[in-house]
Amino acid sequence: MAEFIDKTVLMDEQGVRRALTRISHEIVEKNKGVEDIVLVGIRTRGVPIAKRLADMIEQIEGVRPPVGILDITLYRDDLSTLSYQPIVRPTTMPVDIDRKVIVLVDDVLYTGRTIRAALDAIMDMGRPQSIKLAVLVDRGHRELPIRADFVGKNVPTASRESIAVLVNELDGEERVVIREKVEG
């Protein structure tokens, strides 16, 4: 049975905060403000990250963009391999997304398959003006032609490694680590 051990700490709590602060400023700058922006967090860790980005943008602009929560379970291309009865959690969108600038938010960009599923889910909800992607970590190894518009940190990784993003809201601690698979 394989297990993962922590190999390297990529970001501590201050590093995560700095990366999210920079992404917040970039979102505001590239969109010339926050009008028509909707942040959409992909479950699970994309949700608290999207909420934090909204808080930071509110500090910068004085206006908090709406935050949606997206569950992509039924859009995954590996659904049949996940479990017999996958757990589907609600998707909530606080506003109509037609003609809005959607900023999809996730913790780690890897193969691109999660983002492809998220794009399908968003398109089933409406016709946004555009869709941008914000990720805390881009680790490479893309299988699909997907690129993030806003990246906290680019980290080339080996295929035997994984990236773990731990957030206070879900894990009780805040850090990003590279974990390496070891055969046990």
Describe the model.
By secondary structure, this protein is α/β, with parallel strands linked by helices. It has a single domain (2-183), classed as 3-Layer(aba) Sandwich (Rossmann fold). 30% of the residues lie in helices and 32% in strands. The protein is built from 5 helices and 8 strands. The strands form 2 sheets. A 5-stranded parallel beta sheet has the order 3-2-4-5-6, with helices on both faces. Strand 4, helix 4 and strand 5 form a beta-alpha-beta unit. It is globular and about 50 Å long.
Essential attributes:
alpha/beta; 184 residues; three-stranded antiparallel sheet; 8 strands; five-stranded parallel sheet; Rossmann fold
Mean pLDDT: 94
* Unreliable sequence segments: none
What name does CATH use for the topology?
A: Rossmann fold
Strand content: 25-35%
**In DSSP terms, counting alpha (H) and pi (I) runs of 4 or more, how many helices?**
5
Which secondary-structure class do the elements indicate? alpha/beta
Provide the number of structural domains.
1
> What spatial form do the alpha-carbon principal axes imply?
globular
- How many DSSP E strands? 8
Helix content: 25-40%
Query: Compute the gyration radius: what is it?
Result: 16 Å
